[in-house]
Structure formats: structure tokens, C-alpha cells
Design a protein that fits this description.
The chain is mainly alpha-helical and 84 residues long. It has 4 helices and 2 strands. It has a single domain, classed as Arc Repressor Mutant, subunit A. α2 packs across α4. The longest helix is centred in the C-terminal third of the chain and has 20 residues. The chain is elongated and about 65 Å long.
Length: 84
């Protein structure tokens, strides 16, 4: 499989800088939402003939890496303990 940066790109001139599949205007979030709603890779490829299985796998890996970064960050500042 190709590396994620070879497949998913952000260009301010294409789709407002949203992550897309290189050479297309297919948004990564469109692919992810379709998969989350139960669509299969084969159906996505039929709907978007420029997509490949590698593209879909890259979107999943890209989304997982973003989620892992987000989940590893604390959402609030840790409270300082009062001195005894």
C-alpha cells in the first residue's frame, strides 16, 4: 500500500483544503461517513470509479491516526493539588 501522504492531500484550492484523495475531489470524510453508515468498499468504488482499495484503506488509517492523536490529548487542564 502507498503511504497516506501519497494518497490523501490537502490543497487550499481544492475543496477548501479539506483532505481529499489525490487527483480527485473525493473527500476523505465522505468515504469515512459512507463506511460508517454501512457501505462496503466495492460500493464506494462503483460510486467513485477513480477510487481504489488502497485509497479507502488510507482514509481509514488517516482517520485512525487523527483519532489516536485526539484521544491521547487531555481535554482539560490537570488540576493542581493544594498544598497541605
Amino acid at each position: 500500500m502507498k503511504k497516506i501522504p501519497d494518497i490523501i492531500v490537502r490543497n487550499p484550492k481544492i475543496c477548501g483544503g479539506e483532505p481529499t484523495i489525490r487527483g480527485t475531489r473525493v473527500l476523505a470524510k465522505t468515504i469515512l461517513a459512507s463506511l460508517a453508515s454501512g457501505d462496503r468498499a466495492e460500493g464506494l468504488i462503483r460510486s467513485f470509479p477513480t477510487l481504489t482499495h488502497d485509497d479507502i484503506e488510507a482514509v481509514i488509517a488517516y482517520s485512525a491516526s487523527i483519532a489516536m492523536k485526539s484521544l491521547s490529548r487531555p481535554t482539560t487542564k490537570p488540576r493542581r493539588r493544594k498544598a497541605a
